[in-house]
Write a structure and sequence with these properties.
By secondary structure, the chain is mainly alpha-helical. The chain has one domain. It contains 5 helices and 2 strands. A hairpin with a 2-residue loop joins strand 1 and strand 2. Helix 3 packs antiparallel against helix 4 and helix 4 packs antiparallel against helix 5.
Amino acid sequence: MRNLEKLSHYLKKMFHSLAVSTAPYIILFWLLIEWPPVNNAIRNGLLIEPIKTPEGAINLATIQLSTLTKGIGCCAQLLEALPYILGFFLLKKLFAAYEKKRIFTHENTQIYKKIGWLAFLNGIFFIPIAQTLMVLTATLSNPPGHRCISLSFGTPNVESIFLGLLLVVISLVMQEAQALQEENQLTV
């Protein structure tokens, strides 16, 4: 059990760090997107993949971005990261409970259920909206007639939806196990 406590302690800290650093990282990325080292990393596909549009893939390093398009891109990435940031906070809370040897509790099953619903909503809403905004970011500076806005639904959406539903079902199983554990403790 000591190993679980130790591992949970480190994971709690890691998820806290991810939760508080993701949004500032995204904002800093968009503020520095035209800075040559960042721009070269984008050009080489290191920081962000080219945006898939109906007219083909667009590398953000190859287009002129206005303040408006940078703002839309930043909002798109923040929206896309929101379920992950919330999930990191939930995982931090889960591993804090594990660190205190609270394994099968009602609170933990609720955390799993919330993470499941976050993943489900990510696939249904967050991914399509964020992708739509990124296509708008990549094409807004194009001349009229060459600007695009598209809504897509594909494999990442299905994966996220499936994962979310799976986690909700697991949380229900854990909830039943937790109820049985409480019942056994009362009858002994």
